[in-house]
Amino acid sequence: MSGLLSARGLHVTFAGRRGAPPARAVDGVDLDIGPGEIVALVGESGCGKTTLARTLLGLVPPTEGTVTFGGERLGYASRALKAYRKRVQLVLQDPSGSLNPRHTVYDAVAEGLRIHGYEGDERAAVAEALSRAGLRPPERFFLRYPHELSGGQRQRVVIAGALVLGPELIVADEPVASLDASVRGEILALLLRLRDELGLSALVVTHDLGLAWNIADRVAVMYLGRIVETGPVESVLTAPRHPYTQALLSVLPESPGAPVVLTGEPPDPSRIPSGCRFHARCHVLASGKASEVADRCRAEALPILTGVAAAEVACHWSSATP
């Protein structure tokens, strides 16, 4: 697969406090996002997905591994990052926190143009971005302040601020988590329309597999710093192979059968267990179903998934099950 954005062998380690071991927030990730493709990065809080997203944006330099965009390796000098961030934009989950309450909508959207020294018609560019984000007529919103808008309108302003620079990829971190259920569908439909109209690629970071089902072409399920299952969304979400993915899916309202309640919290990323990193919480292993591979689950590490389009899983039990 020819990736617009590619990560290879990505590791991000943070120093431990007071002599504690370093925390391996991202612990070996390969990931591709193709042109015009929406990839959902899914997992519990603390699994490393936001750190991975920030690393792909160039906000956190990797401890090891590479990020390439359009075939060129990402550099971390200020000029290289500035050029990169014109092509790759971030959309945060909390529009209230990412919009300055003292700035009008016009100034919020125009900020990126001013930072990058845009030489065209600023007013026309802002109007077009607001219109594409679904705020029409755009001039009606120019002089309004964030507190005068609904939550959905504020999120559309944030999206307009990302669109105004004409990016090729957006990274949306929990883009609808703070919105009412009635508005979430509108924002997801907007992201899909932008993909169709502009050929825009997106990485959508979420804990919600239902959201992934509605918007993504591919899904990558992350646990304790590593992607444990990935593939086309229909393949992964209709026939999940990793016990962790099965557990995440089981709590959706439309899921058949009883929810799988995972015991305990994800392990400390400074103390990643041997073998499969999920084995201490694995309901399949605890039930005795995986007895034939139990020793491997506890002791034998699994390879990094390649991140290509085909469905892949990092699980001894699943790989041994016909």
From TrEMBL:
InterPro entries: AAA+_ATPase, ABC_transp_ATP-bind, ABC_transporter-like_ATP-bd, ABC_transporter-like_CS, Oligopep_ABC_C, P-loop_NTPase. The keyword DNA damage does not apply. Keywords: ATP-binding, Nucleotide-binding, Transport. The keyword Oxidoreductase does not apply. GO terms for molecular function: ATP binding. Residues 7-249 form the ABC transporter domain. NCBIfam families: oligo_HPY (TIGR01727). This is ABC transporter ATP-binding protein. It comes from Streptomyces solicathayae.
